[in-house]
Every structure is written in structure tokens, then in C-alpha cells.
Write a structure and sequence with these properties.
Layout: H1 2-18, E1 24-33, E2 38-42, E3 48-53, E4 64-69, E5 74-79, E6 87-92, E7 95-102, E8 105-110, E9 113-118, E10 121-122, H2 123-135, H3 154-167
Antiparallel strand pairs: 1-2, 1-5, 2-3, 4-7, 5-6, 7-8, 8-9, 9-10
Helix pairs in contact: 2-3
């Protein structure tokens, strides 16, 4: 009888130890690694955690959305499977960068502005080319009061339109 009771107690201990509980901690971002998509945090006491994940997987892939927290911002971090070294960002108070990569389409937003890129062509470059082409418009007229002809740089406008179509969706 004592052995059966001991077996039940041991089984209950194993069951309780195997249970994963969600742990959420408050911390402050102390450093950010944009390349690895991780950050270091401190809880304000003596606990520092390194390589806290900014995305679900740290696999070197840039695909998907990522929010990069500002150094000094408050964050909530969660523990992955009770691992002493496995933490991820749940929420934060301030971001320094928003990144999203879907295939060859990239969106990046910082305080410096917004980058929209697709197939290595940026919206900024396409719009700059458009403005440059507009500045070069010359139209010939046969005589005053007669309709003008097509601008002589119409091919440049067509090229810009094609470039914009490759970046932006309808």
C-alpha cells in the first residue's frame, strides 16, 4: 500500500512539474540587434535577459512583420516553455522601426520616413523619375493656337508608369 501511495505522489509531482505556466515580466529594452531580430532587456533590478526574440522564430529569415522596440522603452516579455533563456516580446511602449517583408515586397518605416520597395525598385526612385520627366516636358506646336503634339519624352513617362506598376498594387 505504501508503494502505491508513493507511486501516486511521484506521478502527481511529475505532472505538476511538467505543466507549463505562462510567465509575463515587465522590463526595459537596453539594446537591439536589428540583424538577429533580438533585444536585451533589464527588469530594473539585477536581472538582464539577452537575445529576447522580436519575432516567433530566430531563423535568419527576414520574411514577415517585425516591430523593433526603442532602446529605453518598456516591454512585456513572455517565457517560452519555462526555458531560462527563451523569451519573446509581447508588447512595448515605443518602436524605432517597423519592418515587413513579403516575398520581394518590403515596407520599412522609421522616423526618417517610409521605404516601399519591390523587386529592388523603390517608390521614391519611381516618383523622383516621374518628377524629373515632368520637368523635361517640351511640346511643339505647328503654329500659335494649333493643338500641340505629344511630348517628346512620352517614352520616359511610359517607363515611369511601368516602374510604379511594379511597386504598387492596384
Amino acid at each position: 500500500m505504501a508503494d502505491a501511495k508513493n507511486d501516486v505522489v511521484q506521478a502527481l509531482k511529475r505532472l505538476v512539474q511538467d505543466q507549463h505556466t505562462a510567465t509575463v515580466l515587465t522590463a526595459t529594452v537596453t539594446a537591439v540587434d536589428d540583424a538577429a531580430l533580438t533585444c536585451d532587456v533589464s527588469d530594473g533590478d539585477e536581472t538582464e535577459l539577452f537575445n529576447v526574440r522580436l519575432r516567433a522564430a530566430i531563423d535568419g529569415s527576414e520574411q514577415g512583420p517585425v516591430l523593433i522596440p526603442e532602446v529605453g522603452s518598456a516591454v512585456l516579455i513572455g517565457n517560452i516553455g519555462n526555458s531560462p533563456n527563451g523569451y519573446f516580446i509581447i508588447s512595448f511602449t515605443a518602436v524605432s522601426k517597423v519592418l515587413c517583408l513579403v516575398g520581394t515586397t518590403r515596407l520599412e518605416m522609421t522616423t526618417a520616413g517610409v521605404l516601399i520597395e519591390r523587386n529592388n525598385q523603390t517608390l521614391r526612385a519611381a516618383l523622383d523619375a516621374l518628377v524629373d520627366a515632368i520637368k523635361l516636358i517640351t511640346v511643339t506646336c505647328a503654329a500659335p493656337g494649333t493643338p500641340s503634339t505629344v511630348p517628346i519624352n512620352v517614352a520616359a513617362f511610359d517607363a515611369v508608369k511601368t516602374q510604379i506598376a511594379q511597386i504598387l498594387k492596384s
